[in-house]
Amino acid sequence: MTRQRYILFFLACCFIMFGINHSAVAHQASALNGNVLVNGNFDELPFYGPLYPNHFIPEGWERWWIHGSVLPEYDDVNKPGGVRKDIYVDGGHALVYFKWGPSYTAGVFQVVNGLTACRPYQLTMYARNHSLAGALPHARIGLDPLGQSLTPDGAVHDPTPLNRAIWSREQTDLFVWEELSVTAEPLGDSLTAILYASPQPGSDDVHYYDTFWDAGALRPAPYANDRLPAPGQATNGFINNVTAVVSEGQATLNWNLSGSGMTQVWYNLITPTNPITDTSPLTYTTYFPLIVNFSLNFAHATPVDYEATSGPRSATITDFTPGQIINYIILARRLEGNTCITEFVGP
Question: Is there a contact between 347 and 242 (Cβ–Cβ < 8 Å)?
Answer without folding.
Answer: yes
